[in-house]
Fold:
Amino acid sequence: MTNLGHFITLCATILSAHAIYEDQVGKFDWKRSFIGKVKHAQFDTKRLIVTTHENIIASLSPKTGEIQWRQLMEDPQEHQPQLLHLDKDAVTVSGGKSRFYVRGWDAPTGSLLWEWPLVLDRPGDSFWLLQGDLLVHVLAIKGSHMEVTQFSVKTGEVRAKTRKIPETWVSGDKCVTANPYFVCVFNGQLFWLDVVNEGGRASSQPIQGGPDCNLLEFDGPKPAVLLVRQNSAKIVELGGAVLPHEVAPNAVSIGSSVFQLEANLDNLDKLVRVKSFDLVSGRESSVEIDYPLGLGGPYIVSGQCRGPACELLLSSTDHALTLVRLPEGRVSWTREEALSNIISVEFFELPVSDLEASIETEFTDNDVITMFTRRISTQTKQLVNLVSGQFGSTRDDFGLHRIIVVATAVGKLFGIDTLRNGSIVWTYRLPNVKPVMLLVQRTARHAPLPAQCVLLAQDVTTGGGVLFAFDPISGESRGLDRLSYRIKQAFVAPNEDEEHLKPVIVIGADDSVRVFPERGPKTVAYVYTIDQSLVQGYRLEPDGLKPVWNLNLGVCDLVGVSTRPVTERVHSQGRVLHDRSVHYKYVNPNLIALATLSEDPVHKSVLNVFLVDGVTGFVVYSTSHKKAKGPVHLVHSENWLVYTFFNERFRRTEIVATELYEGSIQSNSTVFSSFAISQLPEVKTESYILPANPVSMSVTLTERGITNKFLLVGTSSGSVVEIPWMLLQPRFADMPCGPEESCFPYMPEIAIPPEATINYNQTLARIRKIAVAPAKLESTSHVLVHGLDLFYTRVAPSKTFDLLKEDFDHRLIVLVLVGLVVASYVTKYLAAKKALRQAWK
Amino acid sequence: MLYWCPLLALLGAPLCLCQASFEDEPDSGRYAIEGRIFPLSDYQTSQANWQANTRIHVNGGEFIGFVKKDGSFTVHNVPSGSYVLEVLNPEYTFEPVRVEINSKGKYRARKVNYIQPTQVIQVPYPLKMKALAKTRYFQLREQWRITDFIFNPMVLMMVLPLVLVMLLPKMMNDPETKKEIDQIQSLTNFEMGDMTDKLSNFLAGPSTAQQNKKPQKSKKRQ
Structure:
């Protein structure tokens, strides 16, 4: 009974240890929400409703660009928004292939009004038209016919039976809708058919131009389409004439005016010009806009005009969303939607201030007088800084102020400040590049040398490798290197050159080795590459690459790879058992954890997990789980491995912890060598039920590895929960487990209390990854959760033991001290008085 | 081929449920899971727009549903199988429910039990999801109270001797009590002295012998 009591109190202390207080909300964490690249947009008087390529419908404030509400629909991989119509309510059609959802949304609040699904019998190209409360669906079957169905938009009730219209001109990819027509280009002719009103006949009109012309939707006053040929377009009114104006393909009509963007080469401050002309009066006008530098090429998504004042919504090639007000040409706001898809994250320490850097040079002179004057001057400067309270973007004592460098999928780099609510410090745009990862060459520790980071990317058109070196603090470019070949593997060599620059070693697809910078020191290293299910190990020698080992995983899908973070330090070499003996950890820095899923006729699908030594190719440990399904998430740290999978037999998510030990004798306490294997490590393993659906998993990282470890698990419900490693750590079967051994008795289900949610009520949409970096403060790690949203916070797995508590009462201490001093003087006085009185007796 | 398993046969349940999740043609039947959310009574005051902030996730977002103004929800296009349905709201906790749809389109809803998947505790279908409680994300700050301070053992240790030091001399000044105390002291002194004398006399012999033995023992240990 007492044991249980002990256990409960221990549990309570550990589990409640990591919750934050309500008044800490927003003190060191921040969240930024995004919507992705905009697809459709409609203006309302008070709001701007958009749908995006992330299959999201959101309402933005036209004044500030803030998200008023946002609703995430199905997975954007398979479902895309097809139609957005804003009348009184917003209507969306989203879906893909053969499955669609029609939904009505309440525009002010964003709650659902109605919803109905549509499942098609056969796949084809679907087109949608909305007129009043009539929703028309056109299914184009290429070269044969089209099927037209009319629905009531609110209920999904079929108004008119599906009409099969045999028309050979239906081409699918060169068709658009122009209310109420369905228009296609076929054999140099333009065909259109009224699909809303029955009984219409297809009309056609010859067009000039070859087969390379394309059609674009054009929402004009009369039903019309844009006929695009190379870089110019013409407006074709259906049943009317081809308008004489030559317009850009991004032309948009608002009311009776047509707006288009042009590059403005006359004025280098205002690179973009909006040209507009009225279709009725033919009046033309042109406004230069102060389009922000650093954004990609813009195009108009939508707009709204009230008299002469117009608002244009621009999207750019780097997914930024900008609202421009006309006729002033002023940019109201910009949203960097590129941040909704981050590929790689690195945390950078800020450089020391010039003042602190000057200490380095203080003792270089031998002259006593100059040294003395320098000392006095720096100290006065320090005093001035202290009094004025100016610190700026320099390093703080605890390493809590960092610059987060992120590489986004569109090839734009951002520097984000961890403090100041995640404001963007700098951006850098690399066109036509697909980032792969960021590599740190030099940190800011080597003042006065600035930090340097390399972005490893792939050219979108050629597929060749791209290396872009930059200063992560200021965002300045240090040179771009385009390679003619694909990159197979790249890594940062551990040995620095005389400028403290770690060389990046790039291995091309043809096994060629290049070192960046080229004068970098030659190294001997072991490298591995993974090509589907073939893992290949090489030895990198000054004269080339030599294959050492390979591991064929067979017919399977590689679903997870994990290695230990390079900066991780293992503080304790062993685990102390109840009899005070030490069980030494098997800490192998070269381990690669691999997870594969393979089909099995009996067990459906089998999950295999391997721990492979990256130097020798030796499989240290392997295991398999039958009837296991993805998603599989792997985390390897210190001497342990944690992975999650879905158990199809019991239909639950399970989490497995595996720990490797050398045993009671440590083979080599100074240096680990993969070649010096005398025996296999001892493996302890235990599995648990995880009552959540993990989408990402990571582990906290601290400067010296003294602090306990927490597993950070991002779940599908949008929360990031921390699970103490101690809860998962495998127990020794034949040993007592209790609070004295700092061990919890085994529990099959891991409890996830709401206090363990590090993002409290800030639900994060579509979490992709959790990036972790140590702070200089041993107790603390930085955490950046990215997906559709960005969330930054600090976690302290063992509480902030190295900091005074935030609620430490300084006033009480001062009060008590003052009280004691006063009391001692008073008693002294009283005692003297008493002594005097007694002397007189 | 597929059959609905009888509720009584608990042992047979896992077997047939596994079969139910096997589906020859994934598009053979598409069903809709329906239900309604019953908010806590203080919903309307704290969260005016809770419908828009609430989502329905089936199997961790494989299928999703939205909540209408009246609290009802429908998750469309779900093939037959077994699903865990969760209600997600940032402020309130809801209990997840397992919904099973067999190939004939029959529904059954039961409580989620990950440890004993075979145990069936049925809940009504269409689902009635009630908010359990407001989610507590935060730790409560300890508040400073005077009672905590007074009953602190350190404070007690300081205060009690202080009380004794201050009060006892005052009591001594009272002539009657002084007399009484003197009496008691003389009595006890007398008795105690007597007893101690006897005891010391009695123990005089063996105690010296013991003292001689002790160093020997310690020498042996070395």
Remarks:
- Chain A is about 10% helix and 45% strand.
- Confidence is low (pLDDT under 50) at residues 1-17 of chain A.
- The CA atoms of residues 643 and 729 of chain A lie 13 Å apart.
